[in-house]
Amino acid sequence: MPRTTRSKAASTATTDSSSTKSKSTPKTSSNTSIYTLAPELDSPPQIFILPTTASTSSSRIVTLQNPRYGKPTRYLVCPSSGFHEFTKISSPAKAPRSWLIDSASNGTTPAQTTKESDLFVATPIDPLFLVLPALAAGVGEKKKQMFLSAEDHFDAISEQNSETGLRKNHLLEVLKWPETRALLEKRMKAVCDTVEAGDEVMFRLNETKLVEELIKKAKRMSETEGGLPRSMEEKFVGKALEAPIVGVRTVTSLTRSNTTTTVESQDGDEKMVETKTEVSLSEATTAVATPVNEVVAALTPSAEILRLQRLRVSLNFLLSSYLPPSLATHLKSLLSTLASRSHSDFSRKRIAGDEEDAYERAEKKRKKEEEEKVKKAGVSRGVKELAKVNTRGMMKLTSFFQKKT
């Protein structure tokens, strides 16, 4: 079996060059890092971005029941700025990132690294959604809703928390803050009927008020500056209202030729003069034609249609993100019923209006015909005959009774 060998001269040259290189290269000291990395932890730290309005001394990160999924979820609660939910922002899988966290600037605490570059941004959330599961208990089951105190509703939330596996009821802890309790009761009054029983206020969910409150939120979400996020606008508004293509129209464009002419002036300098040749319609057969395809759509949605679609998308987002599934399904059916009822009322009013207009026209025609019949009935035969006489050129009868001058 053949074996590849290396010549002695080439081996010697290589050895000499490597020894020369090693002699000419000076030794450098190894670089030392200013950070000392601690060993990897089982629970690495996470990065949270908190609002500037939140008080750093009194704010707390608590565990409450998620109103949509009923699972324990972390929230930021501040007595001054209210409730906040955490939105997770991750880097794309194709471009992984990591964080280097310097715990202290004096270098006494070692720095730490995280394998993932997740960020948790605190964004405001209406605390009404957190108490809706208790307020809407039994909605859609044809049970009579009772007026209950705020304490009863809060206790119902505590019971639901224990059923979902929350070891500690953090809601009762944050309710000790007077500002937080007042905020929750204020938001409950926006969607509930209230009665006073002594010194205590009783609450009962009003579905109509709840729907109106959700529509207000959807309007603010869709009509504020910036509107919906770009991804939602493209997928749920633009693409949903995209009209079918009627056809492709081919438009032929004529090219225009430019000619450059060299002209010698009296001074002996040469100047470049550009002349343009226009192509007339009669010369279209000899000109260069370029076909261009244009897509012709069936129709374009109006501004009102776009506004209603954005409102619909915003409302569906609220129903599918912050309401319990049973309550969201019940409100969707209620909205469909109200929409169909308003459409039928509008159609009925339109038909009634058309019938009323037709009746008025017929009544006016009938009265006019009756008046003409009365006038004809009160005229004698002689008067009718005289009306047929041609009186052109005759003097009027009143001229014979004028005073003589």
UniProtKB/TrEMBL annotation:
Residues 357-375 have a biased composition (Basic and acidic residues). It comes from the Eukaryota. Residues 1-32, 357-381 are annotated as: Disordered. It is found in: Nucleus. Residues 49-126 form the Rnh202 triple barrel domain. It holds the Pfam family RNase_H2-Ydr279. Transmembrane segments: none annotated. Residues 129-332 form the Ribonuclease H2 subunit B wHTH domain. Non catalytic subunit of RNase H2, an endonuclease that specifically degrades the RNA of RNA:DNA hybrids. Participates in DNA replication, possibly by mediating the removal of lagging-strand Okazaki fragment RNA primers during DNA replication. Mediates the excision of single ribonucleotides from DNA:RNA duplexes. This is Ribonuclease H2 subunit B. It comes from Sordaria brevicollis.
